[in-house]
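User: I'm putting together notes for a lab meeting next week and I want to include a structural view of one of the chains we've been expressing. I don't have a solved structure, so I'd like a prediction I can at least talk through. The sequence is below, exactly as it appears in our construct file.
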Amino acid sequence: MPKMVFTNDNTNKIFANTTCGFDGYYDLMDDLANGRACYNKEGKEVSKEKANAELRKVMYNVLGVEEGTKGTKLLQAMRRHKIDVYEVTETTLENMIKTGWGANPFFNEYVEIKNADDDEINEFYTDTPCTLTVSELSGGHHNLFRQRLPEGQGFSVKTSWYGVKIYTEYFRFLTGKVDWAGFINKVYEAFDKKVNSMVYATLGTAGDALPTGGQWVKNIPLTQETKPILIELIQDVQTANESDVVIMGTKVALSKLADLEKVEWIAEQAKFDRYTTGRVGYFEGVKLAEIPQVFADNDTTTKLVSNDKLLIMPAVSDNKFIKIYNEGLAQIRDTEDKNTNTDMTLDFEYQRKMGVGIIIGRVFGIVNITANISG
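Assistant: Thanks for the context. Below is the predicted structure for the 375-residue chain, given as structure tokens.
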């Protein structure tokens, strides 16, 4: 990791006067957050309790108060030294987010990620001959812009700030109610959920700008009578891409294939429990991939992914059609005094600037599932 230079000279002195400096402190934070064994400066393994106690000791030093300080004095110290605490904490969270993206199997298969910190520019390019459809999220909302891109044109993903509130969890860590891993993972899981909801909601809009009723978009009920139409669409996508295909949809959408053929689900492996991945099965020998359903922020009734749409996508390695650009500007902010809470707490919020978009440069199919009207 790069050498840390803190805004506050006193914080720089605190780490300069420790045996292992900030690098050693960071390693301790990172090991605890990821559940790895922890070691002291002599290389001897130490318990998680002692490691957490060491983190709290240094954090109280950064705050300029005695270890164990609580209540109003702790809140006042946090107001005075909030930037120093943010700078120390942001480093661990940044690494957790990137590690989580890299380990998510759904992301590995369908998502291309670029990071400004890795000197990658915000540009995604395709030279494929077919018409492209692009969707992107605007601001912090699930409103979508769509446009067509001609062959051989680059596209930059629109980025915005996204954040999750963390003030309660941080004070719980300082007062010993949760350990460092509990605090960091609480923030990580909240932001990971945010990113996943953005990705899946964007995926659910794939092809919305394409004309309906043509060769690649079918508006049909899923019945034995319409099954040949679905099979032909699958065959057309396979032929156009000279590849296998995958049928993507929510659990509800995929379940509607049961009227055509018995679908046998393959159980998810326990190691994937932490990540939001889809269940996988087969229809007529074609792989199925579940798109997890997500709700709008603070709304458990508004669903962001259609339960009446199936995507017939080519299963090829160069079709990572979901694009994420991470500007690497992670930071922790607070409300300052503009919106002070009635309980006098601070609204710490972990934020990062990023964007999610879709660029589909290969022929694909869409089935908009309509009601089965019996006569």
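A couple of points you could mention at the meeting. The mean pLDDT is 75. Residues 71-103 form the longest helix (33 residues).

User: Perfect, that's what I needed.
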